[in-house]
Design brief:
Blueprint lengths: L1 E9 L2 H28 L4 H16 L3 H23 L9 H7 L11 E3 L4 E4 L6 E8 L2 E9 L2 H8 L2 E10 L2 E9 L12 E6 L3 E5 L4 E3 L1 H20 L2 H10 L2 H24 L2 E5 L4 H4 L4 H8 L14 H21 L7 E3 L1
Length: about 350
Amino acid sequence: MKQVVQVRLLPTPEQASALTSTLHTCNLAASWLSEQIHTCRVHRKFDVQKRFYTELRERFGLAAQPAIRVIGKVADAYTTLRANLQAGNYGPPGSNRRRKVEGTAIVFRPDAGQAFDARCLSWQLGDAGREGAVSLWTTAGRLKGVRAVGEPRQMAQLRGSQIGETDLIHRDGMWFLYATVDVPESALTQPVNGFLGVDLGIVNIATTSDGDRMSGARLSRYRKRQQRIRRRLQAKKTSSARRLLKKRRRKEQRFATDVNHQISKRIVAEAERTGRGIAVEQLTGIRDRVRLRKPQRATLHSWAFAQLGHFLVGHADHNAAHNIAARGEVCWGEVMRPHAAPTLAAS
């Protein structure tokens, strides 16, 4: 099973300058390559590499492996674009939005993330502690001994796992590495006492079939307050207001993530204690199915769950959770059969 571990880099000013130059060069090369791909209609990674590899290296001064990673990034971007077009995410064929997307080459931001692998990035993590170092390729040469810090649990996970692709990210003036590691997958446990049904919503973020409700009132109040603050700061149009907006822009996301962690741990702990599985309703595509008044759209589209909840009130949540728990028993059999297409996610 793949997991992503975040580690913060603490480069010196000289090292930070080299990292910035590396991101800018790699993304400039990616945008140039994207334009060539769009013009020539060559999308397969093998064909792109065969046709543009040499010119890419000579034009932007990239080493061999970073050039391969740039080609892979651009090819993957077009694969994602084609999948979105086929899924209709940019509108039906012939629509203005779809024509604009199809007629424009993908452009990469100067500070967009760049992937590295073991050939151009290596780790020195030591035996214990929360500090380590990395050595990585840059346009200014190989940087050695760049400080890296993380939570002890994350650093231990890096030490005990095989590290795969690593992304270099520059965000809010800070440098991060997002490392992909292979961890053993937990064995599938057979539920012995049925399923705990979970109904997702906005009035109540989650309601279980046991009648346990996790209210969304606190998160809703927080979101509305942040919205009022943003509106006031945007109306000022001053430099200090813009700086404060930039500083606060991910605060709401962090708060919502923390709420989700607390709720999910509470539900999982109860399921483990009682020897039950967890049955959660699948709400894929709810944005396309549900039509709301304008004041309600922001609530739905900014909600923190990957699977968004229906608008419910009161004890109807409890009844819905009982129905979900009953369907979980049926879906468990479907999940265990090959080529199953269950209507409910059972885990």
